[in-house]
């Protein structure tokens, strides 16, 4: 279980989901014997093990297949291939089938299918009341979603772009995060707020927002960032089942990422990081799109004789200090790579948490590579200069390991 950083008195006393209540049939065709209480364990090495008669055990430490796996090995593994946005939709659809209180609201989420097609086809299947198209009024429909959560529904509020959710900041901070506490525990707010964000390709400053730095200081809210189709689906399902408000960050450039995921039921933990690549020389902490910049840099570093350990932190609040701490104790060096702004970003909070808890294990100062504190330029060349590139990661590791 990850260590929770910062005050979280507004969080519900219940867990993100109740594993004792988890008993769902497979969505895919299985034999009669396999359907009864079957589930799939995905090991860290990518191997899969089919288990039976233990369907009530939740898979919390499953990790995605490594991105650099060969095409041949991927094709031989069981499961089905999905793009990241399709994995989000599959997770959402499974939860809507399972629980009639799950509903979706947002701009163009209905018959248009969402700006990135995450909700495509859901309005036809579930009707306009469960997949509700709203006016262009983020403060209104976010507030409506919070009210719906208070009365027993489990709404998923989609922001067409994460930057637009700044219009609903009052509802998210003063209502969504605090009502469980300010009501003396009378109300739970099981809501998911999700949408595309991050620096795209020439989307301009207003459509290139990274709001994780804005929302991290709000008590009572959990934040997760998906980076693969596997964890996108698993985190979506976990967020919907959570009794706490969860903000799910999706990166606009990762929607068309393809991966083979299991046919059977699985749920990822909202509070666990993912070990992407074990190593010995330096711990590289990252999330979302920067995971792929880091893995690109890792190939260069290996060729130069370095052995980096790469961790996708996934849980932006709270941090999984158990996984992070064990890595720091092993490598004694930390590099943080993020797309968030340097001032007040996730990297700054992570640096503080590591310094407070594991300072005695560090052999070198923590290095944090972040986006520059400037509005994201529209020009493509300038846009690249504001975001961390693989060459900078290689240089930083070489500096740390001197």
UniProtKB/TrEMBL annotation:
It comes from the Eukaryota. It catalyses: N(6)-[(R)-lipoyl]-L-lysyl-[protein] + pyruvate + H(+) = N(6)-[(R)-S(8)-acetyldihydrolipoyl]-L-lysyl-[protein] + CO2. Tetramer of 2 alpha and 2 beta subunits. Its cofactor is thiamine diphosphate. PANTHER family: PYRUVATE DEHYDROGENASE E1 COMPONENT BETA SUBUNIT, PYRUVATE DEHYDROGENASE E1 COMPONENT SUBUNIT BETA. It is found in: Plastid, Chloroplast. Keywords: Chloroplast, Metal-binding, Oxidoreductase, Plastid, Potassium, Pyruvate, Thiamine pyrophosphate, Transit peptide. It is an enzyme of class 1 (oxidoreductase). The pyruvate dehydrogenase complex catalyzes the overall conversion of pyruvate to acetyl-CoA and CO(2). It contains multiple copies of three enzymatic components: pyruvate dehydrogenase (E1), dihydrolipoamide acetyltransferase (E2) and lipoamide dehydrogenase (E3). The keyword Kinase does not apply. InterPro entries: THDP-binding (IPR029061), Transketo_C/PFOR_II (IPR009014), Transketolase-like_Pyr-bd (IPR005475), Transketolase_C (IPR033248). Its EC number is 1.2.4.1. Residues 82-257 form the Transketolase-like pyrimidine-binding domain. One of its GO terms (molecular function) is metal ion binding. It comes from Lithocarpus litseifolius. GO terms for cellular component: chloroplast. Pfam families: Transket_pyr, Transketolase_C. This is pyruvate dehydrogenase (acetyl-transferring).
